Amino acid sequence: MSSTLSHSKTHPPRARFFSVPSLETIAAWLLALIWIFPLLYAFWAAFHPSEFMVSFTLFAPLTLENFADAWGQAPFARYYLNTFMLVTTVVLAQFIVCTLAAFAFARFPIPGKNVLFMLVLIQLFVFPEVLIVENYRIASELGLINTITGIGLPYVASAFGIFLLRQTFKTIPRELEDAARIEGCNWLEILWKVYVPLAKPTYLAYGLVSISHHWNNFLWPLVVTNSVESRPLTVGLGVFSAPETGVNWATVSAATLLSIAPLLIAFLLFQRQFVQSFLRAGIR
Amino acid sequence: MRARIPFALTALTAGLLSAGQAAANDPTVLTMYYPVAVGGTLTDVVDDLVEEFESEHPDIDVEAIYAGNYDDTRVRAMSAIAAGDTPQLSVLFSIDLYELIEQNAIVAFDDLVETDEEREWLDSFYPGLMENGQLDGKTYGIPFQRSTIVLFWNKDAFEAAGLDPETPPENWQQMADMAATVREASNGEQWGVMVPSTGYPYWMFQAFAFQNGHRLMSDDGTEVYFNDPAAIEALEYWVSLATEHEAMPSGTIEWGTLRQNFLEQSTAMMWHTTGNLTAVRSDAAFDFGVAMLPMSTQRGSPTGGGNFYIFEDTTEEEQRAAMTFIRWMTAPERAAAWSIETGYMGVSPAAYETDALQRYVEEFPPAAVARDQLEHGTAELSTYQGGRIRRALDNAVQAALTGQLSPEEALNQAQQEADSVLRRYAR
Q1: Which residue among A133, A226, A247 places its CB closest to the CB of B65?
Q2: Domains along chain B?
Q3: How far off is chain A from B333, nearest CA to CA, in Å?
Q4: Residue of B341 and B19 predicted with greater confidence
Q5: How far is CA A262 from CA A81, A88, B201, B349, in A?
């Protein structure tokens, strides 16, 4: 702030009216536009008849037919339910597992803790698609093929979650823990009453990342499921892609909007909280 | 407690035994993964077919599982095999043959057929469609959802440009001239021709090369011939459509939006798969025709699409049941219905002799073009390490079309890359 103030003082007053946006602002706008463009196009395409897709007549007649088409071609209601159940179970399970693991890594005096932690972090370097065959074998042995548990299980012990929570727990002053101990709390109570409440922004930020990732995940759910009863939205959406003949953009856009709508609306509603929690949870 | 354990064990054994006996009377259960490569509700069509089959064959249960596009389906089948849940059969990309053989995943149909009737069935398909499913004289893949490339032309646009709307181009020279005429007559509003160069550039390039009398690979999938003079000439012609004749947009042309471009009349001709036939027919607001691709020295188009495969590691009884199912699915009436529904080809001459397909062809002659062109068909580019080989060729084609490399340089580079990949497969 102070630098911009002193900057404007050295120039004649007129310069204030011509304040050229800084390079960063321009770059941010540019990136934002590039990012939002596909979404805007999907919006536009979903509400117009398919004849206008390539010519892009901005004021082509509006229609809701694409949504009716898309809705008719796949059991979206069931897919919504499946995706919702998948995302909730995965995120809850991740919170539990990652909290316990992160607490152990942050506070317990375990011999070789750092080596173990490095081993966990290695997971971040492994591209999940590489593990499909092996994960499928395990899921099959556990009898979890074609179940929502089967889709979620490989993601429960998330290295990213453990890492993020461990970093947050480490920043929490030991004094608080000591105070709680003097009050007679055991470690579980300390974790629940001291650490978890203080790490709320991290949970929110991590939860958001995790929800959007699992909401959008495609290949593994496709591979591990067989039927409508367990398939999430993204896999249902796959029916609309037609690699051999080219896609009907209008229907695909409508179907895409249908499947991202809940997430999008949630983001718009809670935008402020999300952004703040990301700022607070910044890795230190 | 001690006495009870043997009792529990005996009970368990008895249970297992009775379960085994029950299984003998139960229907044979088959699992099949299949991809959907053309849009829409094909999954429903497949489900209906399976249901009909089951009612005719109460002793066989088929679980048909939609598994995404061709690549996803291959991943799915391979994962299941690695996990020991081997499916009995699947529809996979016809060009996956070498990979499946390399993994010892599939069985040859020649080893499964027993009766003369079955042998006859195995010989009943168009030879052009069998090429991709055969290796060393054995048949591993049965054609199911198969296509070729055809030329779609807009008759209204031809008329507006002063061309005969009923005459499609016969050869390369004519196509370039006609396309340039359309471009000029429309004052640059409309392109003359579009050949897609994303998605499956190698497939389109194969057509050009074959029309120029050249096959890009050996029969056993261990060698490719990308930088042969005939291939270079083919790529030069493709590039010249944009640079010299100015009848095609320069740069790459998007596979996925080409049909829309044609429907919106931004191009008068397009090369595309027969799988688009039904969609173009229902959406075109103008008169259009479908023709065989133009020739240089000969007609030609590669085939494409998916084959049925039967997997290793399943019981003989299951394999026989799988074959019964495949025979049923490829029987002339079903092949005809499938072709009408999707635009894929009827896979056997007998399919085109059924009443349903004959009536359809009469009412909609373009449906027969793909069949007539089959006689000039060639196998789709399929080799060991197919993915890498196709990528090399795709890159070369795109580099030439975008002007980064000359056709000769691009193909030389692709050849080098392919040679180094295929070296260890040399026979």
Answers
A1: A226
A2: 28-146+304-378 (3.40.190.10), 148-303+379-425 (3.40.190.10)
A3: 24
A4: B341
A5: 12, 14, 38, 51
